[in-house]
Amino acid sequence: MTSTSLPPSDDARDRAAYWFARLQSGEASAGERAQFEAWRAADPAHARQYAEIEALWQAAGTLDAAQQARLGRAYRAPALPSRRRWLALGAGMGATAAAALVGVRLWPLPEEYARSIATARGDRQELSLPDGSLVSLNSGSALRVRYDAGQRRIWLEEGEAFFTVTRDASRPFVVDAGTGRVTVLGTQFNVRREGDAFSVAVAGGTVRVERGPWWNRQRALLTAGQGSRYADAASTTPDLDVQAAIAWRDGRIVFRDTPLPQALAEMNRYLPDPLRPRFAEPRLAALRVSGIFDTANPKALLAALPRILPVSVQAGTAGTVDILPR
């Protein structure tokens, strides 16, 4: 039997999950077992991560019938090819068992610092972290922070944040944004999350961007002045305008040949009570706008539209705004 290649991952936990699933399958060859033993012996972190997954699996034996049924459903995936099925098993059994086990804590390192922060529409906040790193949180955003001895972790739950990261080679700085992940040692960068889509703009240094499920993780490096938007696993918009993306930090909204519906949606991010634009004709939604506006006065965009586009604007009821041809 030919050996099965490892999933393309730099994460010891991902590889540990892969090896556990592969060995539990009963299909691993002698060569694969030798590869596993070499991997486990290569780094104490590998052995630790594998031991945690073993402990998690053994602890699952204490679940009640309903919890075991949920766990079983998580790793039954007959529609997938063999290799991907066992990769999915590794992910499913870890995530589902961890969620089901109440009171079982298997974090490898003690929590040193944890914080949650959120901003209302029209508000911005800054957060100083224990290592000297800074987080600037844009309007209508929320994130969680967790530091331990081995990693600095951010979960961007919604909205946008700019990170100025103090360099620490022993502790990567990781930002999770939906299906995406950004990893750095020390740099300045912006991350924006819109549902499952996210964008990254790098002001200084280098970042690694990952997206997609752990068994099919896609990776890219972005350096200073580069940015991209990732809509899903198969859709990327490169050459994001970095200066426009981070202009909010200076209180500016920058539009450069931006579709009008997108510009109005951006305006709404800074309004406590978002407006509901209505286009009288479909062709009006195809118009594009350029200009620089103040985040403290986002409605200035509406006032400017009749001067820069062939439209008129009328306020309606219940927060509606009608965009009419002129």
TrEMBL record:
<feature type="domain" description="FecR protein">
    <location>
        <begin position="117"/>
        <end position="208"/>
    </location>
</feature>
<dbReference type="InterPro" id="IPR006860">
    <property type="entry name" value="FecR"/>
</dbReference>
<dbReference type="InterPro" id="IPR012373">
    <property type="entry name" value="Ferrdict_sens_TM"/>
</dbReference>
<protein>
    <submittedName>
        <fullName>Iron siderophore sensor protein</fullName>
    </submittedName>
</protein>
<feature type="domain" description="FecR N-terminal">
    <location>
        <begin position="14"/>
        <end position="56"/>
    </location>
</feature>
<dbReference type="Pfam" id="PF04773">
    <property type="entry name" value="FecR"/>
</dbReference>
<dbReference type="InterPro" id="IPR032623">
    <property type="entry name" value="FecR_N"/>
</dbReference>
<dbReference type="GO" id="GO:0016989">
    <property type="term" value="F:sigma factor antagonist activity"/>
</dbReference>
<dbReference type="Pfam" id="PF16220">
    <property type="entry name" value="DUF4880"/>
</dbReference>
